[in-house]
Amino acid sequence: MVDLYGWGSRASAMGGAFTALADDFSAVYYNPAGLMYPRTLDWPMEKRKGIKFDFGYVYAHPVLSLRDAHGGRESLDYGATSGPYLGITFDPTDFHGTFRRKVFAFGMGVYLPVDRLLYYDRYWPEERIHPFFYDYTMRFVLTPAIAVEPLPNLSLGLGLRVLARLQTDTLGPVDVDLSQLLSPDSLFGGVIRLEPDQVHLGQFENLTLNLAPIVSVLYRPLKRWRFGAVYRGENWINDFGTTDPVINLGGLLSFPQGYTFKFVRFFTPHQVFVGVACLPVNALTLSMDLGWFDWSKFMNVEASKPDPPFRDTWMPRVGAEYRWKSWVAFRGGYFYYRSPVPSQTGAWNYLDNDRHVFSLGAELVVEDPPGFWDKPLFLGLHFQVHHLVERVYVKTDAQDPTFPGYAFGGNIFSVGIQISVPL
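The chain above was modelled as a monomer; its predicted structure follows.
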């Protein structure tokens, strides 16, 4: 969800161009070093210290279709995706003068899909399916991060993207009587019907964390300028194990029937982003990013590389924020996603399109909320449109069920809301 649609209302509204600007909880993903310098480049209202909570909700709905060579159209219904997220930032400077200067800053982000905490399904490469929309949005996200400032105006950050390694082993004996082996069902039907007390298989599971680092730097040489860079490590859910039943035939023969398996889910490649942000005038913030994705190492569900392999890609992002009044701001952004998937002329059918992504958003600041709360509240809203440029696959094998080819494309609509509460 985060890699597809962004994280945080402000970053998402600004097209994800947040590497140099990262100054709220979403810095745990975009640039953990930004946790040292909360909020905008020079906006005095946000010079607060302590703890801040960000509560948000995001909803995304793909409207995708496939058109065959004869003009027939098929809707690709992956369903809507939605879920809440929580961001926490912690700056210890202002806690009763405990520290004379800012020593470190900490942040954490959590996203929880509404339908399932973690979901993936088996699909075959021959199926016509979008691997990045099929199940990538249906998993939880947990990203803690920390930042330090070794030199004035220079901060370093370290975060972790948390996934899992699941090892499942199925072991034990299966007893088969000679009478069952020589029964008509076995001899003529190829079926041996076993009773529960004949099967002594046990399943052993071991779940461990699979961590990928996020390493970043942020530099502020001038009051109105920020430069940032971030590296995000490769990560996936590693699902592997051994199935090794031992078949005992009438107490006379026994032989193992074992095999091993390995599946890769939610593959996320190495990423490197660099960015710059500036405040040309007091009311306007501009930001720009350029990113690289190491898609050439992509592994499919069966833990193998596609043929032909995926290609590395570049991604530009731009964003802007205009603070019309002290209590309201408007945002906009754009990024271009180039598909890493080469044309599928053979038996495989990985569907993926180049995408133009446009975003808009706004923020309302309630400086003096009613009731007992004595600090301002920040309400954010963002909207995204992903336009998938129609793509055509031309098949070369006349025996292929999809010969001579097909076209596919569509749009994805995403909307989110967020409230930020400083303590």
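The CA atoms of residues 6 and 215 lie 18 Å apart.
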